[in-house]
Amino acid sequence: MSQYHTFTASDAVAYAQQFGGIDNPSELVSAQEVGDGNLNLVFKIFDIRGVSRIIVKQALPYVRCVGESWPLTLDRARLEAQTLVAHYQHCPQHTVRIVHFDPELAVMVMEDLSDHRIWRGELINNVYYPQAASQLGEYLAQTLFHTSDFYLHPHEKKAQVAQFINPEMCEITEDLFFNDPYQVHERNSYPAALEADVAALRDDAQLKLSVAALKHRFFSHAEALLHGD
């Protein structure tokens, strides 16, 4: 059984050679850590020609952008891997393929999508993709329908709710979206010049009632299987 440790670039290469599903694994020779998110290590694995071939992603036991003072469960890696596997079954044309997953190391080996661009940045740069709406619509339709009560037997749906429940990650959303902004909290960051506006927001009872209604929906409407990002 593997014991958890944080991967280095050389660890990621060795892991990809063993579990990457590459015909000539010895051609995988280097790795670059490219994770730009808040939570995980992400390595692009390159072959001897400098071509990125596979992705190795490892969950860290804490919030990466904060440090070890904000611990997180490693089980979120299992939840993400199993969610992507389920979504791939229903919509393979628009879901990244998981090649391998190790729950002890919280590591997954994934299809390389280096030929894609992150849509968030493209939207910011006002780049138009004419097929984006139809492709996103197809992905949502297939994955949401096939993991909902409209398709699943009630017993299977309830079993999946239990399998995929993720209280720690939900708590982050609960706090950052529904709690912190409406009270004085150390995680709130804003220019001092906005203090009066922030205080008015905290004192807006109608706004907080509306937020409470949204929070209740977030707590209680487990309608389909979602990827957290």
Secondary structure elements and their pairing?
Blueprint: H1 9-19, E1 28-33, E2 40-47, E3 52-59, E4 62-63, E5 67-71, H2 75-90, E6 98-102, E7 107-111, H3 119-124, H4 132-146, H5 154-164, H6 167-179, H7 195-202, H8 205-220
Antiparallel strand pairs: 1-2, 2-3, 3-7, 4-5, 6-7
Protein name: S-methyl-5-thioribose kinase
Organism: Klebsiella michiganensis
Family: Belongs to the methylthioribose kinase family.
Nutshell version of this structure?
The chain is of the alpha+beta class. It is 42% helix and 17% strand. It has two domains: 9-128, Phosphorylase Kinase, domain 1; 147-220, no CATH class.
Structure description:
The strands form two sheets. The protein has a five-stranded antiparallel beta sheet with strand order 1-2-3-7-6, with helices on both faces. Strands 4-5 form a two-stranded antiparallel sheet. It contains eight helices and seven strands. The chain is α+β, with helices and mostly antiparallel strands and 229 residues long. The relative contact order is 0.10.
Second CATH tier, the architecture of the largest domain: 2-Layer Sandwich
CATH class of the largest domain: Alpha Beta
The CATH superfamily of the largest domain bears the name Phosphorylase Kinase, domain 1
Residues in helix, % = 40-55%
How does the major sheet shape up? 5 strands, antiparallel
Strand content: 15-25%
Sheet with the most strands: spatial strand order: 1-2-3-7-6
The shape, in one word, is globular
- Summed up, the domain count is 2
Unreliable stretches, pLDDT < 50, 5 or more residues? Answer: none
Q: How many strands appear in the DSSP assignment?
A: 7
* Helix count from the secondary structure assignment: 8
Structural class: alpha+beta
Helix/strand order: HEEEEEHEEHHHHHH
Distance from N terminus to C terminus (CA atoms, Å) equals 30 Å
CATH topology of the largest domain: Phosphorylase Kinase, domain 1
What is the alpha-carbon Rg in Å?
Answer: 20 Å
Mean pLDDT across the residues is 95
